[in-house]
């Protein structure tokens, strides 16, 4: 099945929904207006069930096929924006200072709404489709909240699928891969403790700034000398805070940063060794270190059978040449990972064209991608639930 004519015909209407959401961004779980907009549309389409408040502010619509009983396939979009001031200059730019849809969740939501409208009209499948609209992807773990709320069991979801736009990938193209497609994202805080004093007599102090500098360098040895070069590990110290005056060596310095990994083994290694390296390095110079390591989103792992399936679906929509089924993994993170831990499924990227990168103040979702996203979702549902 190529690009669906009805999906192309819906472009103007769905773009309008997308731009409305873009103008009214909400953060994390505070997507009250967006959830209400989504729920209203799903009811308008005639979904058999529309349930709100899942994972606090998530929405699920259930659309039953007209060919009898069968399994339920879940299709997921995210709804939340980012705390960024928009500089895109588009007519539908954010109306809320300091908030914008800089990751394209407005587009994800609109495309899934378009697919829901089509599926509610046609229902040409056996079983049911659950359209999942998730809050708090941007750091709040909304995917986990929906899973913990019993969403999979309540709607008897047997497989679940997700999609994210990708700037730089041409519109009409898709990429994915089996196994780890996006990284686990952890964070750490290291407090280096020394003994402060006057900057003119550093020999009478235990300088935590010098210790912190050695800790930063030592942490990189975990990447270059303690991890298999065929494995992926990123350790980035992104904040360093300490001191209040030009002539005073402080008592302590705080380092903070992120760790990205693609396997549980490397993730465990990083968590253990960061604490050991920080403490040992500080001790060498007479100081000490306290480490707080917090595990965030797990690795996003595509299931093999479901990945083969979505590659075939995408190729039916966009053509073989426009689909890459063995793309390199990304070190960014995605909380769809929790849904893939709960049920088999796969995550794909859809082209956003030559646009600013994600999380940039001038980014905007490319509405030309909408017919491809709708066609992908519809084709996936109708193929997975073929009568």
Description:
It is a single chain. The protein is of the alpha/beta class and 387 residues long. It folds into two domains: 5-182 and 299-384, Aminopeptidase; 184-294, Alpha-Beta Plaits (2-Layer Sandwich). Helices cover 35% and strands 25% of the residues. It contains eleven helices and 16 strands. An eight-stranded mixed β-sheet has the order 1-2-4-3-5-16-6-15, sandwiched between helices. Strand 3, helix 4 and strand 4 (128-134) form a beta-alpha-beta unit. Helix 4 crosses helix 11 (370-384). The longest helix has 21 residues, at 264-284. The relative contact order is 0.20.
User: What count of domains describes the coordinates?
Assistant: 2
Number of strands: 16
Q: What CATH architecture of the largest domain do you see?
A: 3-Layer(aba) Sandwich
Number of alpha- plus pi-helical segments: 11
Proportion of beta-strand residues: 15-25%
Q: What Rg is obtained from the alpha carbons, in whole angstroms? A: 24 Å
How helical, in percent, are the residues?
25-40%
Q: Please name the fourth-level CATH homologous superfamily of the largest domain.
A: Zn peptidases
CATH fold assignment of the largest domain:
Aminopeptidase
Q: Which strand order do you get reading across the main beta sheet?
A: 1-2-4-3-5-16-6-15
The coarse overall form would be elongated
What are the low-pLDDT stretches, counting only 5+ consecutive residues below 50? none
CA distance, first residue to last residue:
16 Å
């Amino acid at each position: 099945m190529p690009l669906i004519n009805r999906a192309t015909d819906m472009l103007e209407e769905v773009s309008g929904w997308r731009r409305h959401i873009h103008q009214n961004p909400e953060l994390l779980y505070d997507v009250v207006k967006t959830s209400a907009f989504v729920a209203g549309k799903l009811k308008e389409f005639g979904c058999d069930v529309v349930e709100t408040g899942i994972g606090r502010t998530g929405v699920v619509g259930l659309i039953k096929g007209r060919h009898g009983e069968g399994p339920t396939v879940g299709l997921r979009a995210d709804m939340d924006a980012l705390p960024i001031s928009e500089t895109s200059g588009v007519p539908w730019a954010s109306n809320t200072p300091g908030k914008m849809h800089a990751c394209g969740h407005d587009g994800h939501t609109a495309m899934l709404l378009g697919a829901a409208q089509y599926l509610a009209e046609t229902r040409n499948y056996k079983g049911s489709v659950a359209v999942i609209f998730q809050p708090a992807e941007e750091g709040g773990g909304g995917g986990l909240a929906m899973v913990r709320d019993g969403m999979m069991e309540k709607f008897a979801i047997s497989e679940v699928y997700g999609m994210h736009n990708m700037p730089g990938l041409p519109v009409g193209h898709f990429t994915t891969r089996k196994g780890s497609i996006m990284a686990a994202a952890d964070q750490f805080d290291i407090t280096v403790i020394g003994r402060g004093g006057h900057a003119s007599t550093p020999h009478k102090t235990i300088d935590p700034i010098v210790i912190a500098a050695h800790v930063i360098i030592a942490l990189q040895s975990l990447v270059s000398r303690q991890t298999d070069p065929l494995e992926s590990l990123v350790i980035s110290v992104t904040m360093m805070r300490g001191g209040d005056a030009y002539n005073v060596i402080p008592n302590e310095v705080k380092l903070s940063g992120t760790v990205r990994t693609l396997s549980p083994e490397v993730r465990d290694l990083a968590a253990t060794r960061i604490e050991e390296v920080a403490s040992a390095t500080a001790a060498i110079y007479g100081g000490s270190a306290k480490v707080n390591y917090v595990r965030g989103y797990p690795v996003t792992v595509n299931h093999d059978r479901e990945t083969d399936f979505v590659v075939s679906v995408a190729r039916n929509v966009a053509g073989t040449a426009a689909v890459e089924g063995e793309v390199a993994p990304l070190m960014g993170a995605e909380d769809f990972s929790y849904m893939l831990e709960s049920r088999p499924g796969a995550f794909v990227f859809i082209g956003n064209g030559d646009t600013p990168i994600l999380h940039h103040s001038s980014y905007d979702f490319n509405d030309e991608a909408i017919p491809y996203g709708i066609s992908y979702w519809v084709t996936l549902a109708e193929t997975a639930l073929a009568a």
